[in-house]
TrEMBL record:
<dbReference type="GO" id="GO:0046084">
    <property type="term" value="P:adenine biosynthetic process"/>
</dbReference>
<keyword id="KW-0436">Ligase</keyword>
<keyword id="KW-0963">Cytoplasm</keyword>
<dbReference type="InterPro" id="IPR036921">
    <property type="entry name" value="PurM-like_N_sf"/>
</dbReference>
<dbReference type="GO" id="GO:0004637">
    <property type="term" value="F:phosphoribosylamine-glycine ligase activity"/>
</dbReference>
<comment type="similarity">
    <text>Belongs to the AIR synthase family.</text>
</comment>
<dbReference type="GO" id="GO:0005829">
    <property type="term" value="C:cytosol"/>
</dbReference>
<keyword id="KW-0658">Purine biosynthesis</keyword>
<protein>
    <recommendedName>
        <fullName>Phosphoribosylformylglycinamidine cyclo-ligase</fullName>
        <ecNumber>6.3.3.1</ecNumber>
    </recommendedName>
</protein>
<keyword id="KW-0547">Nucleotide-binding</keyword>
<dbReference type="Pfam" id="PF00586">
    <property type="entry name" value="AIRS"/>
</dbReference>
<feature type="domain" description="PurM-like N-terminal">
    <location>
        <begin position="58"/>
        <end position="163"/>
    </location>
</feature>
<dbReference type="InterPro" id="IPR036676">
    <property type="entry name" value="PurM-like_C_sf"/>
</dbReference>
<keyword id="KW-0067">ATP-binding</keyword>
<dbReference type="InterPro" id="IPR016188">
    <property type="entry name" value="PurM-like_N"/>
</dbReference>
<dbReference type="GO" id="GO:0004641">
    <property type="term" value="F:phosphoribosylformylglycinamidine cyclo-ligase activity"/>
</dbReference>
<dbReference type="InterPro" id="IPR004733">
    <property type="entry name" value="PurM_cligase"/>
</dbReference>
Amino acid sequence: MGSGATYEGSGVSIAAGEAAVDMIKPFTEKTHRPEVMGGIGGFASLFRMPMNKYREPVLASSSDGVGTKSAIAQAMNVHDTIGIDLVAMVVDDLVACGAEPLFLQDYIACGQVIPEKIAAIVSGIADGCVKAGCALVGGETAEHPGLMAREDYDLAATAVGVVESDDILGPDRVRAGDVVIGMESSGVHSNGYSMVRHVLLDIARLQLEGHVEEFGRTLGEELLEPCRIYTQDCLRLVRETDVHAYAHITGGGLAGNLARVIPSHLTARLDRRAWTPLPVFGYIAGHGRVQRPEMEQAFNMGIGMTCVLAPDDVDRAMAILTARHVPAYVLGTMEASDANAPRVLLEGEHPRF
C-alpha cells in the first residue's frame, strides 16, 4: 500500500514557511520601537501604548495593497522594493489625519513560498517601516497552490497609528485663504498600473528590459521606482507649522483625493503651471494617446501628497521640505464657493507636458 497524501504533496511546504520566517526575523527586528513587546512567531503581536505621551489618544488604522505593480516586480524578478510601496500606501493614508504610525502587519499571498523571495519582499517592507518610523510587528505568509501560479504573489498590510483627539486633521479645519502645497512624487507610485501595463506592454508592446532615454534607465526600473514615503515629513510640518489637512494622492488623482478634505463651502483653485509632471507620465500619455482628464484621474501626475495650511506658514513649510530634500510647489489656494461648485479647479497647462 502506497504512502498517504501529504500537505507538501498538495503544494504547501511547512518547512519553506519556517525557513522564510527565520530569514525575515533580522528585517523585522531593525524596525522595532521601544513599545514592541516580544518578537515575531506568536499568535498575536503586542505593542505597549505610550499613554504618557497623550492626553486623549485616538487610534487610526489603514489597510491597502500595491495593486498590479506587483506584476511588474514579478516580471522583472525584482522583489526588494515592492515592500516599500506597500508601507507607503498604508502609512501615508494614516498621516493624512495627523496620526503617527505605530506598527504595521503584512499579508503575503503566494502560489508557493520561496524563502529567498519572501525575505526580499519583507526586506523592502522593513525598509519602508524604518522610513516611516513604525514597527513591523508581524504578518502572515500564505501559500495558495491551485489558486495562484507558483511565482505569483500579492501583498497587503494594515497599520495602526495614534493622534491626539484635538489634533486630528481634516476638512473641518480648512479655511478660505489656506494655501495648498504639493509634494513631488517619485514616479507613478502604486496606482494606475493596470493602465500602465495595458498601454506600455499590451498596446505599445514595449519591453521592460528596454533602455529609455528619457529615464536614463530601463522601462522596468522606472516603473519599479518605489513610492516616496512622506510620513515623517508630514509629522514634522504638523509640529512646526499650522497644517489643516493632508491629502495622499493615490487612485483618483490630485483633484479626486484633495476633494476629500475640502468642505462644501470651499474650492481649491490650483494652477498646473506650478509644477512639471515627471517624464514617465508624458511617456504613458504619448504611447496610449491618453487624454488629460484620464491621466489626471488615473495617476498622481507628479504630486504624491498635498498639504493645506495657513498662508502665514507657507514659507516655513517650504523651507522645512527643502531641508528634508522633498521637492514641493505652491499649487494654489482655497476660495469661498457654494455647495454646487467643484471642490477642486485645475487651471492652466503643464509646462513641457
